[in-house]
Task: structure prediction
Amino acid sequence: MVRRVVITGLGVVAPGGVGVKEYWELLTAGRTATRTISFYDASPFRSRVAAECDFDPAAAGLSPQEIRRLDRAAQFAVVSTREALADSGLDVSALDPSRIGTSLGSAVGCTTSLEREYVVVSDGGRKWNVDHEYAVPELYRHFVPSSMAAEVGQEAGAEGPAAVVSTGCTSGLDSLGHAVELIREGTCDVMIAGATEAPISPITSACFDAIHATTPRNDTPESACRPFDRTRSGLVLGEGAAILVLEELESARRRGAHIYAEIAGFAARCNAYHMTGLKPDGREMAEAIDAALDEARLNPTAIDYINAHGSGTKMNDRHETGAFKRSLGDHAYATPVSSIKSMIGHSLGAIGSLEIAACALAMEHGVLPPTANLHEPDPELDLDYIPLTARERKTDTVLSVGSGFGGFQSAMLLARPERSAR
Amino acid sequence: MSTTTTKTEVTLADLTRMLRESAGEEEGVDLDGDVRDTPFIDLGYDSLALLQVIGQIQREYGIAIPDDAVVDAETPGALLDLVNSGQASPA
Amino acid sequence: MTATPTAPAVRPAAATVPGARTTAVVTGLGIAAPNGLGTEDYWRATLAGESGLGRVTRFDPSQYPSTVGGEVPGYVAEEHIPSRLMPQTDHMTRLALTAADWAVADAGIVPGDLPEYGMGVVTAASGGAVEFGQRELQNLWSQGKEYVSAYQSFAWFYAVNTGQISIRHKMRGPSGVLLTEQAGGVDSIGHARRHVRKGVPMVVTGGVDAALCPWGWVPQIASGLMSTVSDPSRAYLPFSAEASGYVPGEGGAILIVEDAESARERGAEHVYGTVAGYAAGLDPAPGSGRPPALRRAAENALADAGLTPSDVDVVFADAAGTPELDRAEAKALEELFGARGVPVTAPKSMTGRLLAGGAALDAATALLALRDGVIPPTAGVAEADPGHRIDLVTGAREADLRTALVLARGHGGFNAALVLRRAH
Result:
């Protein structure tokens, strides 16, 4: 008997708002949360735009000690975990804690805190032999981002396997894929799974500047991220977290849980090509999509919506459009595709989980979020990218994909659990 | 940020030295040969390698090289022409 | 909410589902450790009780309360790493690439042996490529953003070893990176077995780490768990009455985990052993009053292997080296095996704790012990603190070894256990 995995709870911290409700309002309004960076003086940088969260940790319910102890990314994760658990209605205290696991994606860990503390212990970069006497007690916790998975797990009362999954910008899909495997194989019945990232920090600006990955469109920050548009010029950094409560289908049904969707298939591949480059044919992403379809035992024609990686670079747009055509064939032309990064930016390791949360909400509400800022479609891209305005459409099967530095390519399928017996 | 404002012309030998330092040398490629018109891609250098070496030229020579150089300059010769033509402005 | 039937799009069930019955074997090892570079150098030194710990030379440790570390000796990167990769890789990734090269060669895998999507890479990481990261942070903050390397965007990050190994060997299968601090080496091997059970013929796994730079050192000082003893032979004495904390080291091991049948079909040269059992668990929140998860992880790993504690011939301990953590581990061992019920060893006493590389090296060491029928010693410890009722192996001990248990713990509450069995 194959154990199936369903989403029963959602929690989100995203640019534009804390909480699932505000997140969904932003996405369906087609509103963008990208703006001029306010966290630090970004004037030296080529790209000065980001999608920042207006996040007040105390207002979000964190205690003074939690605020001191936790990096911003860990704060996002803990707040999202609380919302997801409440949303799921799960009574954790009635469960065997060893059957609850934790899987948290993050690409760059506690970057914000690490850089802040680096500046102090190095005295502004003057010292190679950085000064331990200025090190805060939390420094090691920031140094090893696995600490964030422990925080989330302990917050949830989970004593099963826990880990941070860190595969660059596919971390947020891969962490969910990892969680699905743990439930399917019988190790866990419930997973607290998702991803978090708070990368908006000078070192992140500097390293994306150095490879011209981020957009230099600083004059119009609100429309700076333009996936699939002829005028696209690079990605816009974002931040945030999404935590999902995943459960084995039968036990979720027994307790009468609200089920958003089943995670029906997942696959990850590597392009083994380049640490940052993508081949235009999208072969490895297509391979991941095909393998996810195999796992879900679905044909490509079942797919009613694709949540694209859509990072806002020409290379990505061609790569994934190529991959969709490869995997879906003619059905690609009949399948709406959109990129929510146009609105909430690219939160690196977190975005995959934020996108799956958006897909679950799209299935729940029968509405597809649009690709904002898509005024001048790239003539070489000929799919339906849902420009500007959300679209009402009932969906039963949804695909989300991601590409990451390191060559990672991942694909995940959500479907309605009622669709058929296996 | 750099205060160097040397106006010295960048030579092919300077460029190959900086390529080696910034991005290493592909096995089977002789950078000391006549590589002026050999595409960077055939020399084993991708866009990251070019960005890295352009960064080094900018720092060492105190000039600003336009963003498009990494796309437009497909050979060492083309990059040197761009750097030495005055299109690159003092930083 | 009723679903629209999508039956036409649903495929019939697959005829065969790769399952838990698949046997995962280890067919290749690559080791870079402070007391030996390469598997045989390391193994010889380890059996002889030769420690690789010393005063740190990679930076001047004089100003710090902790000065002892384990540095990999005699590693000349240029001899192993292509010139084009040098500017874009940290010392950690170079060691990892080298260990992976050795492991692939040891397994006798040649390109074309296996389908490219049938080869995956799963590695453990802890703090990323710290030395590279420190240099670029310094470039940014002391000189400006123009001085930051174009390679910084990926050279420091946690996924770098997996990405670079997959590119170098054209491995396009399911890949991943797990972070559970020092438990990561075991978790990555457990995850590799998961992939093999799902039908991936071969996965390169394990962990190699290196954080011997000031920006890797100071956070560890802040953890409060590092030894401040300056005599390298006395600084890291796990389970002893003099235990004073741990010493960090660099290096680790890369292992080739394969489907046994696939390994046989391609004519694998040797099988070190099978990955028979694996389990992990998270400690409850501090102050909850609930017990730590180490014992349960060990029990579950044994159950997963279909074994009982009496089947275990040797335990490779986590050996944190602080009195409190040693006591917790010794207690778990006593509860599992009875007082002094099984030989327990900590060869990491000769290498230091290698962050994400440590548990992978322990697994590799356990496989060598199974191969040769000898338990390597816990160096420098004359006898265990009598309060720990464990049979600590303090000199190499010959034994008929069939089953080894590897325990690993990661800072913050991670616990993992791996059961390895001799091949035949």
Notes: Chain A is about 30% helix and 20% strand. Chain A touches chain B at residues 46, 210-212, 216, 274-277 (CB under 8 Å). The first strand of chain A starts at residue 5 and ends at 14. The domain at 5-110+145-417 of chain A is CATH 3.40.47.10 (Peroxisomal Thiolase; Chain A, domain 1).
